[in-house]
């Protein structure tokens, strides 16, 4: 990235004499920020180069621009710019280039984006950029010794920092110039304007070109800071007031930058324009822009003519007259075109002065004359909505142009016409709802169609509005729609429970939006909803017997606790919901299974639960209540039913209760009483103390019986009467004792 030096860095550049050539046409310097927060700027030189007469060696790949401070002309630095664009400029009519092969101009653009230390550019009087080059075309008519005369390119800009803040400003930005030439004794206009990105005012004035210090021996010198630069020398008879002489010498519009001239002498004329930049009435910058125009004796080209004549009249329309188009007449005008030159291509365009250009159409828009006496016809038609307002005429310009060189010749026919407004029938909106009234029970749906029609086939907008309510809040559906001539939309109402016992008024509005007149028609419908007769739903279970339900202890052979829940409704068209609502807990909390159901009666869902020991331990001695609810979708006063199922949890078995029930005497005599040693109260639950093993010993300590079966029985087979010893092993303790066998 190239940067401007903080001080001047002068580079001695030597050019061979072969680079001197008459090639300069003109150009300007542009300078503006691209990213002000990052202090990035665009700097460019637009250089117009004579391709027809200039030497190839005079075109360089780079240029060096120099920065100076205005207050004392001190150098601020320089920047070398590469060539970034090279193109041949066009004529307004590209075919004209064939007639002047010695007038070919190249636009050479040298540019770069640079970073500047803006704190060094804070002088209130501003700064300027300069580039000098020699030499000009040796065939220039209005200055002396042009082949040895250089040009000074110059642009001023304000301080980049003002009051310690960044100051944003862009130099004028110019469009690409055309390669047009002047025809003698024919008015000629040339757009020389620029635009300003900051909205500053641009003021244009003609200025005497600057020659500067460049010459044949030093064609591209190191620029000098100066308050003014040497000017060119006018040729005899040329002054600042007639840079291009003629009955109407060269002038420029100070506001638009458009050049005008009628020249009477052939030649190549150089001129300069000073473009001054004003902000809030204060000049903040300036750019010098030079160019040259060639005046030649052109072949005769007659100006085309546009005419209009009302039907039945002999005289042609004269500017200032006012025509009238009645509301029942076609909104078209037949324009006649003539041109004294045969084989001339004519084009036509229309400009609405006090109405939209898009509202008028010309057909055709292009013609070719076959003889000098041709009269061509174009039909100009206004669109339907164009009409006079407040009895003021519509003003239209019809512009016809030929394809003459260097610029088309034109004729403008300005027509004033009173266009009466056309008849506009009112639109009509209807519904297919009988008498535009309806009363429906809650839970049903009302459907009907709304149609808007317009006999004029205009654009329509159909919409619905509830009086003092929103359609969607009342369960109503209607989408606004548009159409041309006709539009139809469905209306749907499914009343919610809140919609009963009141009347709803819905206004359907069709609007004819043709020409923004907005003629409307409205139809209103009155709707009511009644409560639907409703039987209360019913919920029940398959649980038999009394409640609470005793929850069995978890065991190896215990069954899962389960029962069915039923949701019923005598109104078989109702939609039911069946769900569980535990009291003070959630089903998932204890792993209970129950699926909510939705649908028409009858609904069935099963409740299942197999509690764990941890859950039984937590809930031992407590009760849980599960409410099962069925709910219908009616608006009736009773729409739910609930049944509660209570689950009761017993106490867990304890080892202490077991100790009290261990027998100490058995009488194995087959009388069915105390025949065997066993534990009647041994729990099969998998919770609490778990039985592991029983061992029985004789009095000498011999093991005579052992078992791990919780259902064990020892009936003292093959042992005599006497005292025996037992050991009952559980997970947390062992019971030992004596037992007497009596036979």
Q: Helices and strands in order, then pairings?
A:
Elements: E1 24-35, E2 40-50, E3 62-69, E4 75-88, E5 105-115, E6 127-134, E7 150-157, E8 161-162, E9 165-166, E10 173-174, E11 182-183, E12 188-191, E13 194-195, E14 201-207, E15 248-252, E16 258-262, E17 267-279, E18 282-296, E19 305-308, E20 322-325, E21 332-338, E22 345-352, E23 360-363, E24 366-368, E25 375-382, E26 394-401, E27 410-419, E28 428-431, E29 437-441, E30 446-453, E31 459-466, E32 476-477, E33 481-484, E34 486-493, E35 503-512, E36 519-530, E37 538-541, E38 549-551, E39 561-568, E40 576-582, H1 587-590, E41 597-599, E42 603-609, H2 613-619, E43 623-632, E44 640-649, H3 655-659, E45 665-666, E46 691-697, E47 703-707, E48 722-730, E49 734-741
Parallel strand pairs: 11-18, 20-27, 29-36, 38-44, 45-49
Antiparallel strand pairs: 1-2, 2-5, 3-4, 3-6, 4-5, 6-7, 7-18, 8-9, 10-13, 12-16, 14-17, 15-16, 17-18, 19-21, 21-25, 22-24, 22-26, 23-25, 26-27, 28-30, 30-34, 31-33, 31-35, 32-34, 35-36, 37-39, 39-42, 40-41, 40-43, 43-44, 46-47, 46-48, 48-49
What does this structure look like?
The longest helix is centred in the last third of the chain and has 7 residues, at 613-619. The chain is 2% helix and 45% strand. It has three helices and 49 strands. The termini are far apart. By secondary structure, the chain is mainly beta. The model is unreliable at 1-20 (pLDDT under 50). Strands 1, 2, 3, 4, 5, 6, 7, 11, 14, 17 and 18 form an eleven-stranded mixed beta sheet that branches. Strands 20-27-26-22-24 form a five-stranded mixed beta sheet, with no helix packed on it. Strand 46 and strand 47 form a beta hairpin. It is elongated, with a radius of gyration of 53 Å. This is Gliding motility-associated C-terminal domain-containing protein. InterPro entries: T9SS_type_B. It holds the Pfam family CHU_C.
